[in-house]
Write a structure and sequence with these properties.
mainly alpha; elongated; two-stranded antiparallel ribbon; 5 helices
Length: about 100
Amino acid sequence: MRWDLLIIILALYNCLSIPYEVCYGAAFTESVGLDVFEYSIDVLFILDILINFRTTYVNTKTGVEVTSGFKIALKYIFYGWFWVDLGASLPLELIVV
């Protein structure tokens, strides 16, 4: 629960900081410390993806907890938020440059 709370707080930070940077430009937020902080957020989001590949779930039909890594990965990729998480965690400013 603490991990999810941390990810939510960091996502909210991104929801506020990204529009600010787009509107006012990066000149207002240029700082080495802030850059390191924002890159560390990207790393934590990627780490969250890796954790989601190992997080068990309960099968709604049988009520049994699924612990198979393969089944967890399939569910996360095809029925979960994998593609949204991946798109949101990629540091696009580094890819575009």
